[in-house]
Amino acid sequence: MFLKSLTLKGFKSFADATNMHLEPGVTVVVGPNGSGKSNVVDAIAWVLGAQAPKSVRSQKMDDVIFAGTEKRPALGRAEVGLTLDNTSGLLPVEFNEVTITRVLFRSGDSEYMINGAPCRLLDIQELLSDAGVGRQQHVIVSQGQIDAVLNARPEDRRGIIEEAAGVLKFRRRKEKAERR
Ligand code: ATP
Ligand code: MG
Questions:
Q1: 132 labeled binding residue
Q2: By alpha-carbon position, which residue is closest to atom 9 of ligand 1?
Q3: Of 7, 25, 37, 176, which sees the most CB atoms within 10 A?
Q4: Tens of each residue's pLDDT in the chain, 180 residues
Q5: Which residues bind ATP (predicted)?
Q6: What are the start-end ranges of the E strands in 12-152?
């Protein structure tokens, strides 16, 4: 499985619709300071379901919506679409390509879609957790995170390993069932 393309529209500094095509292997994003490199990574974390504003380097979630510049007014919505190549079948759906879309409006409303069909955040989380891309998003390793894993308390480290191994989904379902 690999990232095939990423589309940003009104997300952080990407006011205009911007489409990036990616190939298997390593992709390097280069550019001057403040040009939006980390915003691209934030967009990936966000579309994969990031819920904490801090996880996308924001104070509050609507900070991800283009805030305007001197020449350009702010926008009312942010949208990110991520297309994954699923020819390996790692994601448990019958599509060779899976596009996940997340939209946030200034009103606070959000929309999630899988291949254009509206869905819940939970559907995206469950789809991705089968591929080892869980809620904690250990697929994105940011600065200082390796140290944090090494220094974590054993029970926290266990959670990280469980998430990577795909066990957490079942624990979550079990907890949900027990609460009923
Ligand atoms: P560095 O090399 O310093 O790490 P970078 O390329 O990673 O830089 P980013 O952090 O991705 O840069 O981008 C920062 C820019 O994004 C800033 O200019 C900031 O004003 C802009 N930005 C962030 N959020 C928004 C927003 N909601 N609306 C408009 N611009 C935004
Ligand atoms: Mg950066």
A1: no
A2: 36
A3: 7
A4: 889 999 999 999 999 999 999 999 999 999 999 999 999 999 999 999 999 999 899 999 999 999 999 999 999 999 999 999 999 998 989 999 999 999 999 999 999 999 999 999 999 998 988 777 765 656 787 777 788 888 999 998 888 788 777 787 788 889 999 998
A5: 32-39
A6: 18-21, 77-85, 97-105, 110-114, 117-119
